[in-house]
Write a structure and sequence with these properties.
three-stranded antiparallel β-sheet; 14 helices; Aspartate Aminotransferase, domain 2; 414 residues; alpha/beta; 12 strands
């Protein structure tokens, strides 16, 4: 029967099920709950829910926007080709070519409304109802909704205990002809893991073997908005240099602190068969999905910022928070790999907690009583974990650690 609770009769069945069936984004719910706690008063809130960059954009960004507004090019704010300004795409194609050692052309790049916009554009362009998108788990929870937008299905694939790719599990999943896309998110949200170059080379070999028996190769979508937040300053490995059927998806929400400006792009490997047709399809889907094009002013400012290697947020701030939280949680009996990139941690609960079903949700509730907001691992396909965003303040990190200690102590003494 169609759900009619609280006006839900006005919604589609899919959205009603998402809202009332608790499939709505856990992350957003917890973020909004943190806001409500602040409005109600009662002391500080230690909000580790949303990956909302806490560092301000670099000064170069502000100058670039100011210059674009003070010395506008004719038609600067009008519609442009749906793929974006040609000169901006050419700049990004050259940058990505230098980075990955491949020869992108401007037409391989499509400017999008963030990385999420790029994924929705590609899913619309490449998937039919009933197709599947394989993704290593844990995974960003909204991937499931992006698939549902086109009638496709997300297919989680287990990873190792350290969140590295499990090639045997991937091979088993990718045998299914319904899988048309493998979605890789490295550095990863929610775990902060970075897939190694060796594992990506092995994966490329696996995909080539599977493709030999397929009429259409498996496409790899590399969702990489955290690639410039490596804690040690190194470069994250990529499938672009080892697998022809790869599409890069990224944004500047994190490395430039511009999450609210929604500026990103997709770049199709120049070695990919049919890349020109796919690029045209991406531009079409940009339009028909209602994005039309990426924000014009953001596009105009981007090259001047990216051409300055100093124009990045201070990654060490996030790295410091990750290290402090990880050390404190390990001392309390949690398990997690050494943080490598980004600003997320995904600790596994102490063994005593894992004996009970729904322990991650239980701990989330108990931390809430200490005004500490986290997201249960259930939201990312990995019960028994918590996701913590370290895009926060020193005080929030310390306050959250005290809350964890209090919750763990209370359980030990009960």
């Amino acid at each position: 029967m169609f759900v009619s609770e609280n006006g839900a009769q006005m919604l589609s069945r899919r959205v009603a099920d998402a809202l009332l069936g608790r499939k709505e984004s856990w992350t957003r719910r917890m973020f909004e709950l943190a806001g409500q706690l602040r409005r109600d008063g009662g002391g500080p809130v230690h909000d580790l829910s949303l990956g909302n960059p806490s560092l301000e954009p670099p000064s170069q960004w502000k100058r670039a926007v100011h210059e674009a507004l003070e010395s506008p090019q004719p038609g600067q704010h009008r519609y442009m080709t749906n793929a974006g300004f040609p000169e901006v795409r050419a700049n990004l194609a050259a940058r990505e070519s230098r980075r990955y050692g491949v020869s992108f052309a401007a037409d391989d790049v499509c400017m999008t409304v963030g990385a999420a916009g790029a994924l929705n554009v590609l899913f619309r362009a490449m998937l039919d109802a009933g197709d599947q998108v394989a993704v290593p788990a844990p995974y960003f929870s909204e991937y499931e909704h992006y698939c549902a937008n086109v009638g496709a299905e997300l297919r989680p694939v287990p990873t190792t205990a350290e969140f590295e790719l499990d090639l045997e599990a991937l091979e088993a999943a990718l045998q299914d002809a319904r899988v048309r896309i493998l979605l890789l998110n490295s550095p990863n949200n929610p775990t902060g893991a970075v897939y190694s170059a060796a594992s990506l080379r092995a994966l490329a070999g696996l995909l080539e073997r599977l493709n030999a028996r397929r009429s259409r190769p498996i496409a790899v979508l590399e969702d990489s908005p955290y690639r410039d937040l490596m804690h040690d300053g190194s470069q994250a490995a990529s499938m672009l240099s080892v697998y022809a059927h790869t599409i890069l998806v990224t944004s500047h929400s994190k490395d430039l602190g511009l999450a609210g400006e929604r500026i990103g792009y997709l770049a199709i490997s120049p070695a990919m068969e049919g890349r020109a047709v796919l690029a045209r399809a991406a531009a079409l889907c940009n339009r028909v999905l209602g994005f039309v094009n990426a924000p014009a002013l953001m596009q105009r400012a981007l090259p001047a910022v990216l051409d300055d290697p100093r124009a990045r947020v201070e990654v060490e701030v996030y790295a410091k928070h990750c290290r402090a939280m990880a050390e404190g949680l390990v001392a309390l009996g949690f398990h997690l790999p050494t943080p490598m990139a980004g600003f997320f941690l995904f600790p596994r609960l102490p063994p005593a907690w894992l004996e009970e079903p729904g322990a991650d949700v239980t701990m989330t509730d108990k931390l809430l009583a200490h005004r500490t907001i986290v997201v249960p691992g259930t939201a990312f396909g990995a019960p028994g974990h918590l996701r913590l965003s370290m895009a926060t303040s020193d005080a929030a990190v310390q306050g959250a650690l005290e809350a964890f200690a209090a919750v763990c102590s209370a359980r030990a003494s009960s």
